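Page 47, continued from p. 46.
Same chain as before, 352 aa.
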Amino acid sequence: MPAPPAREEPALSEPTTGTRPTLEAVAARAGVSRATVSRVVNGGAGVRQVLAEKVRKAVEELGYIPNHAARTLVTRRNGAVAVIIAEPEFRIFSDPFFEQQVRGISRELTAYDAQLVLLWVEGPGDHERIARYLGGGHVDGALAFSLHNDDELPQIVRRVQVPTVFGGRPGWKEAQGALAVPYVDCDNRGGARAAVRHLRGLGRRSIAHIGGPGDQTSALDRLDGYRDELPEADPALVAEGAFTEESGARAMTELLRRRPDLDAVFAANDLMASGALRVLRAQGRRVPEDVALVGFDDVLPIAEATDPPLTTVRQDIEGMGRLMVQILMRTLDGEAAEPVITPTELVRRASA
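Result:
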């Protein structure tokens, strides 16, 4: 009986079935030392470009996946970042603003080969849970946004000493002066001024404002921008909402009751503007012929889907998420981080 054909043995640097490629296998394939491979894989400096390219090529060819535990020992990094949204679950999944911001964060973290861990605050009891998680060394840093002035998160991240970048201008006293914290925000006040100037330029004289929650700096800054342009405005022309569509509808109903002669509305976000538009149409007010309407954010699933499409103040929501990640990574590398204010732009559509 003829002998079976000899079985070919894989080359030393090739992975075998069920065997995870090692640093040694990558080093053999690239023709470099194990230490060189380790420095390249873990993001270390001091490796010539030509050698680094050889290592990266070998990693790709072999399908090498770095050992997370070993990498953590070398870099003292977990490769994970907590994203904390200080809002309940229903707000996070019903407001496209959060979707866009998290998308920007996720895409930028991917570029840094880091994982996103999403946390949100349903109630006061969640703060202790978040504190335990952050203090447990599971993440390298945190990104926190949509905070309210009485939120416990700033004290938590300071107590557990987790590097953190905030989305939105901090409103608590401890964030000012020598204790200033890094944050990313848009020019809320300037954007609000642009919205009101646009309405005034259309000849509107009774311009109402639907504001956001009074405990969030973005809402307060947009209200200040409205007042900058209309310092003598009737207080009855201002109503507070909660950055939700339903709160915008309620505020619009109240404004029409107080001032049925109003001929323009500036809403502090697009969701509230869409709620206001629904009420205006239900009460027989034509937009923009009878009442001109401007929102804030330029969240396209809302601004382009309303009838008529919404004139709004655009902020680069996804870009701000990317900026938060970039600032956090610089902070983790020991660089000083300064607050960043991004510009806003009025986008003219059919509602005003």
